[in-house]
Amino acid sequence: MTRSARLASAKATGWVEKYPGKNLVRGYARWFGVDLVCALTELRALGVKIDHEREKQIRVTIANRARERKEQREASRAADAAWAAEVAWAAEAAEAAWAAWAAWADEAAVLADEWDAD
Known about the structure:
The N and C termini lie far apart (about 90 Å). By secondary structure, this protein is mainly α. It has five helices and no strands. It has one domain (about 5-90). The mean pLDDT is about 90.
């Protein structure tokens, strides 16, 4: 739904006047499927007076959420890198163990041949 369609719908249904909840901005955002900043803009276009402190609080909340998501992504990437390093170490250890076993098997075969030759 476009902005003009949302505004027309809100006007036609009297959505703002009929909203029963406490948080008009969040209710509008959820009802019309927009983010909080868009809800602020559209509610102002509908003539709703929104305190600048409330707008500032909403913008700070959005910025904090974005920062937290970024930190979580970075932590996840760090964990993935650590896991990849462990997998590489395990692969190297397995390869070294396999090489040691192969060398032992070759030596055992030579000793067995010598033993049989006696």
